[in-house]
Amino acid sequence: MSKAKARIDVTDEQIEAAIALAKLREPYRPKAVAATYRAKDDVIAIQLATGVEVAIPRKLLQGLGHATPEQVGEVEIWDRVRACTGSRSMSTTTSPALSKASS
What is the pLDDT of residues 46-80, one digit of tens each? Predict the structure, then answer.
């Protein structure tokens, strides 16, 4: 017995309204613009376009628990596309909400 498929009708006007709203909210989206390693605190500090700084202890970031200070000092911000296709041996990626926009 198969389940009935759900159907959602969306109008062009609804799509255009959603795009317009997204453009209005863009300046307030938490977008990473810089990342640095602060050795004195042993944290990765991520600066957002909104002016907020997020500092995460290095040991809590997957893959960085045993990294050397030199490796951690090479932290980079990658957009979602590069984060998925990058070939570096050690990289740090963030959640999509913190990823730099790929546009």
Answer: 998 888 999 999 889 888 888 887 888 877 777 65
Instruction: Report the SS3 class of residue 60.
Output: helix
Structure tokens that stand for 14 in this block:
């609804």
Fold of 29-103: NE0471 N-terminal domain-like (3.30.2020)
Residues 6 or more apart from 32 whose CB is under 8 A from it?
A: 46, 47, 48, 49, 77, 94, 98, 99, 100
The H-assigned helical ranges of the chain are 12-25, 69-72, 80-85
Q: Which pTM does this prediction carry?
A: 0.54
Dihedral sign for Cα 52, 42, 57, 35, please. positive
